[in-house]
Amino acid sequence: SSLKPAPLLSRKISDPTILMSDASASAFKELRIKTSSVKRLVKDLSSYSAEVIKETNKLESMKAASADVHDVKHQENVLAEASMMIPDVKQRLESALGDLQLLMSDFEGDEFAEAEEVKIANETIDAASAAQAEA
After folding, report:
1. Closest C-alpha among 129, 130, 115 to residue 32
2. Which residue among 29, 52, 69, 101 is least enclosed by CB atoms within 10 Å?
3. Are the C-beta atoms of residues 52 and 76 closer than 8 Å to each other?
4. Helix, strand, or coil here: 114?
5. What is the CB neighbour count within 10 angstroms for residue 133?
6. How far apart are CA 24 and CA 31, in angstroms?
7. How many Å apart are CA 35 and CA 99, to the nearest integer?
8. What confidence tier does 106 reach under pLDDT thresholds 50, 70, 90?
9. What does the pLDDT look like over 65-88, one tens digit per residue?
10. How large is the greatest C-alpha to C-alpha distance in the chain, in angstroms?
11. Closest by Cα among 84, 107, 109 to 35
12. pLDDT at 96 over 50
């Protein structure tokens, strides 16, 4: 049996990265990675903020129900641990967002305006800025 050579173009012709240089493809890959990092940190911040609210409500209801002192103390520790995560995530988000915004300066101009990666990155920057304002 004879092996067929692999096709030179494994991607569709409409794929814009085919028309790009290796440097541009690498820059778009870095943009996707940094965008994903910021998205993950926005999700983490939202999750930790929701957890703090949930644990605060649970603590208040335990106190209102005159729960056991040890149970209340344990719940206070749970709340403290959840609360400690928020400043760390905020700092990491600020750093990752700054990195993404800096990288986006490489993608200014009409030739990149329609690139899906650039649109997603801009949406992510807006979402991250809103998340920072809320937290």
Report:
1. 115
2. 69
3. no
4. coil
5. 7
6. 10
7. 10
8. confident
9. 988 999 999 999 999 999 999 999
10. 79
11. 107
12. yes
